Amino acid sequence: MEQQPIIQLESIKKVFYTDEVETHALSDIHLEVQAGEYLAIAGPSGCGKSTLLSLLGLLDSASEGSYNLDGQPVVNLTASQRAQVRNRQIGFIFQAFNLIGDLTVEENVELPLTYRKMPSADRKKRVQEALEKVGMAHRMKHYPSQLSGGQQQRVAVARAVAGEPAILLADEPTGNLDSKNGEAVMELLRDLHQGGATICMVTHDARFARYAERSVHLFDGRIVSEEEAAAVSGEYTAGRH
Amino acid sequence: MGNDLRFALRTLRRTPGLTAAASVTLALGIGGTTAMFSVVDSLLLGDLPYPDSGQLVTLWQDHRAVTLLAAMGFGLLMTCVSVASLLLARASVRLPEMAIRSAVGAPRGRLVRQLVIESVVLAAISGVAGLVVALWGVEALVALFPSDLGSLTTSGLNVRLLAIAAAVTLATGVASGILPAAFATRRAARLQPISVLRSD
Question: Helix axis angle, B2-14 relative to B16-40, nearest 10°?
């Protein structure tokens, strides 16, 4: 029996309206991601890849089309239901880390778990495990401002995996890091994938897209090509680094 | 709830200027209102402050008590508006934090709860200072009246005054916190978390 995709997008369209201007950020997107897959979404700046990731993460809603997450339609959920789905099924890793400065490392990682009805002892155990996974358990009581960029991104990865989500969504996770720390974070994501995690990563950098099993390329809001591992060209490497 | 409380105290500690400004405003508002209410309570709502007040009869009734209470309520409302505007300014600065919390799964109700807890904690701290202001205020007001007004001159720190101060403090905390919280979380939701979280 064929396995049901964990992510299934059909005819997705996203239009932004500003004053009298319509901007078509995404058009006719069809995409399926299987459980345990590592997908890179690549393309030049402004091609719509981050918009696509925010739709996948229920941080934004599509103008048209259908989206099934783990077999369940999610396009018509209320804000509160979307928050619950994000909390249970999605882990985010952002380019700018997006840790809360007034929370310690431990509290930042615990944050998604505090929005579940989970006993404190279980939360602490999950936080400890997640931080050990990313090699940051010794920095639990520190604040983000006391950490380097690479360390902050590790903590953000721990926060994303602490809730044991169905998918991890990474938006340019190496964008604010030097190449050494960028490689380290990519190695960490690869380890998580090898441990069974489903990952969708947005990147404009072909070096990092090669870590994924499959890449889809966006251009002007459309998927223009799809490639298997280690076949990504270097055409998008010009830009931020 | 424990996490929200701990975070509220930490946030207030880390923004000393705003915390001080809001606390002084709240302390004066809570203290002034409590002092005025205590005196009005003794003079107009309880037994009249004259010897053998039970012998007195009412020949006519006016609405001075209601007017006074309304004036006090309006004064307290002004305090709430001042503090709410300070909290609103702070809430706007904290949109990224709201967006992060929302992204990791905080429902809007939890965000509102967190911000209201912060304003209630702020009001509680201010309430203690307000109680001192209230005691001074009652003494100052009592000094304006003749010394033979029995029940009025026994005003001061009593259970009734404490209960009034606590009620005024809680009402002020919730009232000054709920509107900025609702506004900020609505704005965060409308902006869509991703637009706040993207750095480029």
Answer: 110
Residues of B (91-110) whose Cβ lies below 8 Å from A: 96-97, 99-110
Q: What is the ipTM of this complex?
A: 0.86
CB-CB under 8 Å, A112 with B105:
yes
Instruction: Give the residue extent of every domain in chain A.
Output: 36-61+77-228
Distance CA B11, CA A172 (A): 30
Q: pLDDT tens, position by position, for chain A (241 residues)?
A: 567 899 999 999 999 888 788 889 999 999 999 999 999 999 888 888 889 999 999 988 899 999 999 999 999 898 889 999 999 999 999 988 999 999 999 999 999 999 998 899 999 999 999 999 899 999 999 999 999 999 999 999 999 999 989 899 999 898 888 888 888 889 889 988 988 899 999 988 888 888 899 999 999 999 988 887 654 444 444 333 3
- Determine the CATH number of domain A36-61+77-228: 3.40.50.300
| Edge-first strand listing for the sheet containing A64-69 | A21-33, A7-18, A64-69, A72-73
